[in-house]
Sequence to fold (189 residues):
Amino acid sequence: MEKKLGRSFFDQPTLTVAQKLLGKYLVHQIGKKKLIAQIIETEAYVGFDDKASHASFGKTKRCWPMYEQGGIAYIYLIYGVYWMFNIVTEKKGIPGAVLIRAVEPQREIEKLKRIGSGPGKLCRWLKIDNRFNGEDLTKSKKLFVINGGKKVKASQVVRTKRIGVDYAGQWAEKPWRFYLKNNPFVSRK
Fold:
């Protein structure tokens, strides 16, 4: 198995990490079972001023992981139903995170069910919930990210505005959502 991505990968600017995560693999080791999925869609939340980011309200009980060092998991519940899995970026004290919006499972049966095509669906399938909030993905033996082996070319990446953040005014229009072109697991085109 390839080596886990280290701290230096996640300690980069959020927009850089959001794009570089495309093509990487998210791994959840559950006992002897290993769930593996390629990251194919991400969304960036950048700094204190980004009105779509939880960090725009300051450091709270909910968003404290965003202020930690890059590579920490930030997980929260929306609508009282769906867990959202984010990976913290930037240096400690600078709030930034990348929402993993969609993944492509690596087993055919899981691909047929489209279980990774949305942030809530992928958390349900990968069994990611608030138990992992604050988990250091660079050190964890249960949840981590590895390289994919092949490099994603810039021509393969689509950049669009973020989804579901209309309340954020001009910040909703930022083209900070990235996905792999023509991938059937993208949550929305």
Q: What stands out?
A: The longest strand covers residues 33-46. The first helix runs from residue 7 to 10.
